[in-house]
């Protein structure tokens, strides 16, 4: 079984100095403060990460784990999907990040592993554009339809429009950008909190897209690709139900999402997912205090093995 949308191998970063990052708190409405010591918080996050890795491996997903020992002051390193992405045909992108602490998460050992174990044709590095205060935060900023070649992108300071165009030209995607706000009227900072695209379905809170015409366009484009649109509520988004990633497991597709996210879904929504994929709930409550969930923790590898 092979799905272009759902990779069978991933990269995950094991955190040793995890914390809710003060630098990103201004525009990430999902962040909350853990009421524990730094050591206890970090240990709990590491434990959650290790359990998640074990569950993914049990499901047949290949997981490449890299330790982040925290000597670089990278509290958000558990979310590697923002600084690099991989693409069929052997292409890798490295991204410019919005805040300084997240720029320190980039590491060449991950890229070297990809080159060693997978067929990498080229690495396009956009990170130098940080000097011009431009950011495009990977598959957090863009939710990619690898089949329909569309980059769905919420307009924000984490997704510069010029850079988005440049990425789409290089990697052959069509950009579909839109404004999105939560129930409190706050701008959404990353596209992958409000939508996730599987092989046969898409999870999205259409109500968050502020412009009715754009909303209709996004829904139509998802349906044209043959997917069933699972329309999430604002409440479900607040439980991270949009922050999910479909992966190719041993026997079938799996949808990795947090336990909290799965608990927020209605039976009819779960039925649509189960038609083609098995929900795989991962318990990551401490990691979620940093404002990201399971999708953010997983960088998919869309490359052929050597």
UniProtKB/TrEMBL annotation:
It holds the Pfam family DDAH_eukar. It comes from Ruegeria arenilitoris. This is Amidinotransferase. It comes from the Bacteria.
């Amino acid at each position: 079984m092979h799905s272009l949308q759902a990779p069978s191998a991933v990269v995950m970063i094991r955190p040793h100095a995890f914390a809710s990052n003060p630098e990103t708190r201004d525009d990430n409405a999902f962040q909350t403060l853990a009421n524990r010591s730094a050591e206890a918080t970090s240990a709990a996050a590491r434990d959650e990460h290790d359990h998640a890795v074990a569950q993914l491996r049990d499901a047949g997903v290949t997981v490449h784990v890299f330790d982040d020992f925290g000597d670089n002051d990278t509290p958000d390193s558990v979310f590697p999907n923002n600084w690099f992405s991989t693409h069929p045909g052997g292409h890798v992108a490295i991204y410019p990040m919005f805040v300084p602490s997240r720029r320190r998460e980039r590491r060449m050992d991950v890229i070297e592993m990809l080159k060693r174990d997978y067929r990498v044709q080229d690495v396009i590095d956009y990170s130098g554009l940080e000097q011009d205060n431009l950011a495009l935060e990977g598959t957090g900023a863009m939710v990619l339809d690898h089949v329909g070649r569309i980059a769905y992108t919420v307009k924000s300071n984490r997704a510069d429009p010029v850079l988005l165009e440049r990425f789409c030209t290089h990697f052959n995607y069509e950009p579909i950008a839109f404004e999105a706000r939560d129930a409190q009227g706050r701008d959404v900072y990353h596209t992958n909190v409000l939508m996730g695209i599987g092989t046969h379905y898409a999870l999205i809170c259409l109500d968050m897209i502020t412009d009715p015409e754009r909303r209709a366009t996004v829904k139509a484009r998802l349906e044209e690709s043959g997917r069933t649109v699972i329309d999430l509520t604002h409440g479900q988004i607040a439980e991270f139900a949009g922050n999910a990633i479909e992966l190719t497991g041993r026997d079938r597709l799996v949808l990795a999402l947090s336990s909290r996210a799965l608990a927020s879904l209605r039976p009819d929504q779960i039925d649509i997912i189960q038609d083609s994929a098995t929900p795989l709930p991962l318990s990551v409550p401490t990691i979620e205090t940093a404002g990201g969930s399971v999708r953010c923790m997983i960088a998919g590898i869309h490359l052929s093995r050597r």
